[in-house]
Design goal:
By secondary structure, the protein is mainly alpha-helical. The protein contains three helices and no strands. The N and C termini lie far apart (72 Å).
């Protein structure tokens, strides 16, 4: 389904094409080169589609990185809480032995 920004069929098709190429292993750099090639030919609707796909790809990668970092922070917090709990338990045992 086309979003409002991709109403032009050429923009939409080149957006989808660039996404397809990325999903099938073409790098962001190669898609950027493809964009530059279309710019040199002054095919601006095609460029718009490729450009929006590049923006979408980069945004999606950024979101995944943030998710990974958030999960890592959560793991660290859990480990910190576990360590804190272990230290408190050890202190209580030592106090019980002394007291």
């Amino acid at each position: 389904m086309k979003s409002s920004g991709l109403k032009n069929i050429i923009i939409y098709e080149y957006h989808q094409l660039a996404l397809y190429e990325f999903q099938n292993g073409i790098s962001i750099e190669e898609i950027q080169l493809m964009l530059e090639e279309y710019e040199s030919k002054q095919l601006y609707l095609e460029c718009a589609g490729i450009h929006t796909a590049l923006q979408w790809i980069k945004f999606s990668i950024l979101v995944e990185i943030i998710k990974l970092l958030d999960n890592k922070k959560l793991e660290i917090k859990i480990k910190d809480n576990d360590n804190r709990h272990d230290k408190e338990t050890s202190r209580k045992r030592n106090r019980d032995k002394l007291g």
